Amino acid sequence: MALQLNAVAYLSVRSNVFGEVNAVRSARSLPIVHSRKALSVKAGNANVNGIFAPIVRQARNVIGMKPFNQLRGKGIALHSQVITEFCNEVGAEPKTRQRLIRTAKKNGEELGFLA
Questions:
Q1: Which terminal CB of the chain, N or C, has fewer other CB atoms within 10 Å?
Q2: pLDDT band for position 114 (50/70/90)?
Q3: What phi and psi values does residue 25 have, to the nearest 5 degrees?
């Protein structure tokens, strides 16, 4: 369902021939789109069938949720430290380090370490 709003104020930025930037306020009709579809938030690991997922689930059941999450957090922190030390040794940029950590998380999800 789209509703029409008569006048919506917005700012547009224009520059003149001298390179000066001016903010211009004007009114314009813009459509407003309303959706009745509910938003859903999906948290957790998408791949609960990774090769290590059964072991991870059993370990969580044996030692309990809180100690398991603490142990998992320590493992993730240690792995991130190893990646950071490696990047410092080879002189990699911070963006490269971030990309390596994101890749490690993605691989952990696919293998079932985050099940």
A1: N
A2: confident
A3: -100, 130
Separation CA 30–CA 6 (nearest Å)? 8
Q: Return the pLDDT at 10.
A: 46
CA-based nearest residue to 60, from 114, 96, 5, 2:
114
* Complete DSSP assignment for 10-51: EEEEEE-TTS-EEEEEEEEEEEEE---SPP----S-S-TTST
pTM of this structure: 0.56
Phi, psi of 5 (to 5 degrees): -100, 130
Give the type of residue at 7: A
